[in-house]
Amino acid sequence: MSTAVLTPAALAGEVAPPPSKSAAHRAILCAALAEGESVLSPVALSDDIKATIGLAQTLGAETRLDGARLTVTGIRREGRPAKGRAVLPCGESGSTLRFFIPVAAALGVDAVFTGEGKLPTRPIGVYLDCLPGAGVACKTQGGLPLSISGRLKPGVFSLPGDVSSQFITGLLFALPLLDGESEIRLTTPLQSAGYIDLTLQILAEFGIEVEPLPGGWRVKGGQRYRPRSFQVEADWSQAAFFLAAAAFGSRLALTGLRLDSVQGDKAALSLFEGFGVAVERRADGALLCAPPAGRLKAQDIDAAQIPDLVPILAVTAALADGVSRIHHAQRLRIKESDRLKTTAALIGALGGRCEETADGLLIHGVSRFTGGTVDGANDHRIVMAAAMAALGAEDAVTITGAQAVNKSYPTFFDEYNRLGGHANGIHLG
Fold this sequence. Notes:
The protein is α/β, with parallel strands linked by helices and 429 residues long. Helices cover 29% and strands 24% of the residues. The strands form 7 sheets. It has a 4-stranded mixed β-sheet. Strand 16 and strand 17 (287-290) form a beta hairpin. The longest helix is centred in the first third of the chain and has 13 residues, at 21-33. The model has no long low-confidence stretch (mean pLDDT 95).
């Protein structure tokens, strides 16, 4: 475990947020299912992306990384993956796990899925409810390891839309491979809709057709993924941390972001403008971000579609003038950490005032963080939120478990220091 010690500073300069992890997961899987060679770029090797590449390789894909350029030769080029039970280690990546379970089943692969950290205890019950009736036997003691056997059959798949959109995405990847038509029907309203929009967009780019229906989707069987060159767009959820830096007194130019992105976390731009951050949209596409003219403004934030933004939004709200409320965020209790609890603890450790509610957080703004020690909770978003909070602190901030950034943004502290931050004592391993 590593510990980072950060002293107050202001960031300045130009920064390109890393490639979208969400887009890269999806593109790698589509490329792995295509018959031929795809080239994806840029791809950043976070721990989660390494897990997805590893599972694609285990199922028979070939990959080659040249800098940030990933070449993938699909597993269907020479038929199905080899027979026998495949062991599929997902690390701590929920996306990897939930995307590959139905895909492996559609390919007829007997597999054992394993995980690390909190992943073995994160929910998979949605699949345990819908896959056995479609020809897939599932064996588990309640989490990971999970063993599956049998081949997925087409049909109607009913599942909730408010547990995790990753289950829906996994089925959307798998169902085109089957020999008949299928439907996905939602039993509860869809949350994190932006992630499904991203899935559908990338599926279409790889040649897969999905028909929207009221409350679900229809997917034809017998479709073929087509190989292609794919540009991975920048990640709006990571851009949010630099927008927060501007809220705390930094001046930054953010480059490489798509303003027409379907990423749900693009909402970060309007939310930080709501706090008072000044954003100028430059002709070359860069966003010039500057501190607010006065105190940050409190907000009421519905987090149903943007759960990953909650830690950094809450940290920003902690220095706003007034009381901010974040609601419809109950799903954060089953992330890498209980993010409602760990976000509230982060703010409290630094002298802020934050209360947990049944479905979110109530944040009473203070004028300044005092500094202190934050438990990173083995959660990349808690660590990065605490690092940005250090910019608005009176004294040093110590973050334990700083290596958690490897999950999504291994170069985070390098960029932080390059831009003028003071982060010391970091050994990410």
